[in-house]
Fold this sequence. Notes:
Helix 1 (6-27) runs antiparallel to helix 2 (35-59), helix 3 crosses helix 7 and helix 4 packs across helix 5. This protein is globular. The protein is an all-alpha fold. 77% of the residues lie in helices and 0% in strands. The chain contains seven helices and no strands.
Amino acid sequence: xxxxxxxxxxxxxxxxxxxxxxxxxxxxxxxxxxxxxxxxxxxxxxxxxxxxxxxxxxxxxxxxxxxxxxxxxxxxxxxxxxxxxxxxxxxxxxxxxxxxxxxxxxxxxxxxxxxxxxxxxxxxxxxxxxxxxxxxxxxxxxxxxxxxxxxxxxxxxxxxxxxxxxxxxxxxxxxxxxxxxxxxxxxxxxxxxxxxxxxxxxxxxxxxxxxx
Length: 212
């Protein structure tokens, strides 16, 4: 995200996720989809998402004045979490009609709007690369050095790591929890609304930051 054009990287990553959603839709068309193909496709989508996230966030400071940056960050968080509210609810309505493949294809189509918006944005060009700036493993080592030296950076990254390791896996386990503990069929609107409540809480928190 710091060594190449962030908009270009984001467009490439978003395109990769869109293609991954299309492949998922094709894979699950049959009654007995290939599980290996599903895992590999989801892995590819995850790689693209990992490349997209830092470039997407790093793009924000070049789009708004510094005084408006907190609001822009909160607004970005709001739209990301709003998708957790709107997406599951829509999927819950569509699934009985179009099936899993149809939901994946519709999801792929939504990436067109994100990619189109990115192509319309004209951020300032990235700064020229300094020949003295370390690259490769040396650049990675310099980041580790900052982590060890700066207590604020260490607390932020440490907190994110613990949260990601211990809390975020709950999202992937929600279908099992809903089915085994709550008696909800994951193929119904009820489960979509349950998952949407999770995102609604995140949206509420993000909106509260914007209004402060």
